[in-house]
From TrEMBL:
This is PB1 domain-containing protein. It comes from Gigaspora rosea.
């Protein structure tokens, strides 16, 4: 698993040490660890990309602070637990690379990729792209919410769809419309990826971050 600023590796000497499950009916991925005693469930809309590499590696990237749930599978009935009660805290993980066990066929991995691509990307009109070893610049955004002002950072090269999914998960609020303030001071709607690119291009760049001028969502300014 790739972490921010470091690489953490979990080695499995038994096929049941680490297990990746795709629940197509629930539109989630599950990572089961510690001999199937811990399950981490991730909704597909938290994926930025998912690819099977030519070497049969399973590679996927995740939203910052992606949504997830931890379950204890050691009892008869799975029980949701806090991340602190497990030894597997993946809060800072942004990408994962998994090596299939021996005997896994490429055709099965391709079916997995096709299913996730259909339910997690094509369903929402999102292109499932992954570029390896690419430097990523981040936005630093000040968010003006109804009750508070918050700051967040977000990868510059991600889509408007993933940005909205991230906002909903981060602030737990409905988003009916999204606006930003251009360099000229105009309030502009963010309706599609063309608007999103224009907003990013009109941002004020400082050091390693991109600082857009005021954005707003619903009745709140960003």
């Amino acid at each position: 698993m790739n972490n921010v600023g470091a690489i953490n590796t979990i080695r499995a000497y038994n096929p049941k040490d680490i297990l990746l499950l795709f629940h197509f009916d629930q539109e989630t991925l599950s990572i089961c660890l510690n001999f199937m005693k811990i399950e981490i469930i991730i909704p597909l809309n938290q994926l930025i990309s998912f690819k099977i590499a030519s070497s049969m590696l399973i590679c996927f990237r995740l939203l910052p602070n992606f949504q997830k749930k931890y379950f204890d599978l050691s009892s008869i009935r799975p029980t949701e637990v806090s991340k602190g009660s497990t030894t597997f805290n993946i809060d800072q993980v942004r990408s994962m690379t998994l090596t299939p066990s021996k005997g896994v066929q490429l055709e099965k991995l391709q079916i997995l990729e096709a299913g996730i691509n259909r339910l997690g990307f094509e369903k929402y009109g999102i292109t499932n792209n992954m570029t390896f070893k690419q430097a990523c610049q981040w936005f630093y955004i000040t968010c003006y919410l109804p009750q508070e002002t918050r700051a967040l950072s977000f990868p510059e090269n991600e889509s408007l769809y993933h940005f909205i999914v991230y906002l909903k998960g981060r602030f737990k609020i409905p988003i009916t419309r999204l606006k930003y303030r251009s360099r000229k001071g105009d309030i502009c709607l963010l309706l599609d990826d063309k608007d999103w690119e224009y907003a990013k291009n009109s941002a004020i760049k400082t050091q390693n971050f991109v600082r857009p001028n005021n954005l707003k969502t619903g009745h709140s300014f960003f």
